[in-house]
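Final report, closing paragraph on structural work. Over the funding period we assembled a curated collection of sequence-structure pairs, and we close with a single example.
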Amino acid sequence: MSTQSVYPPVRVASMGEQTRLFIAAFVIVLIAEFIGNVSIPLGSTEIVLLPLLWAVLIGAVLGLNAKRMPAGVRINSDMQRTAASLLQPVLLLFIAKLGLLVGGAIPKLVASGAGLLFQEFGHFFGTMIFGLPLALLLGIKRQAIGATFSVGREPSLAIIGERFGMKSPEGQGVLAEYLTGTVFGAVFIALLAGLLTSLGIFNPLALAMGAGVGSGSLMAAASGAIAAQQSPEVAKDIAAFAAASNLITTTIGTYFTLFLSLPFTLWAYKVLEPILGRTTKASIDVADIGADVEHELPKPGIGAQIVVWIAVGVFSLFGNWINYKVPATDSAAIAGMAIIVGVVCIGYALYRLTARKLPAVIWVSLIGMILTYPGFPGAHDIAALTGKINFLALSTPILAFAGLSIAKDVPAFRRLGWRIVAVSFAANGGTFIGATIIAQFFMHSPV
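Its predicted structure, as stored:
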């Protein structure tokens, strides 16, 4: 089924609207960083709310109240789609920073042994193990397959759309997972990661591996919540392990979900539905949710992407100044950010030169890792310069754009009903918890 037959033509924000969008994102970053970390006591533990969460929430409020805002500051639907289209380019900066961290941490990653490899099974089966039984108990039928076989990002939409069609029950389920992750995913995973970290029952590095769920924004939110409760040195390891896990998930994710996760979920549904299945108000027809979801977004050209990388680099320098006390005018910090932007440019150029056969995130990660790998000429100096930029300072602009894009999906989200939303939360939480449990086991195993 072609996209054009279901969704309206893609609309593009004007130059003036794009300028307003960038100004709004910058202001959101400044406000979020000034608010800073907020700790909320929860019995003997606490939840740490990070600037990236404030960025999501502020952006979402601006988008949802667009009609009430003066025309000069309104974030209209075209701007919301543009914000969504910029998420992937902006994420490359975060990926570059993590790649630079991973390069220097490769000896530690190798020392982690089988944990880093086998925790991936937790990522790919945790969604089904935690989400499918709950879905059946709540009376959800075949929508449960699409909602629980993965975390429901774009590759999962493509897999289900190709096999079942997006109007099928399975298509409705994966779309529900997609919408839940888009609207609430970062907030939910950050709160869950922060809570589990504060309990002290998991090794922080196991939690970091669990954070690599295959979504850049979700990884940023989860790893940030974990790192916020660690020392600066351990926080760097958290970022490196989360990045390595996310890279593995991204690399093999499509094949794993297609050939293992989806077949296993289909089999589990056949086995469990006669046992746990119920018919309730949750057994509803949600076929119309696709009408409000536009998967086709404006595609920024290379010139626009370079502007985005430079602008977000500047945003991050200011956030780094506010929360991590490195002046935005510091020559070493500016040089470090220039290296990060350079890594993105080189990685993206290789992505284009190789006919896009491998995702850009892989090329960017590899370039970053090579530059800081022990023994590479100048690795120590590159690590020192880029070390001036805290990875959390780069995550706040990402979540600001994510927040500004949320409102476009809310009309469809409202039709889902609380049951399938709860199932989506269980699936998102399951992939994180499942991978963490497996990583924790191998970290204590003599293997």
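The mean pLDDT is 85. Strands lie at 38-42, 45-49. We thank the funder for supporting this effort.
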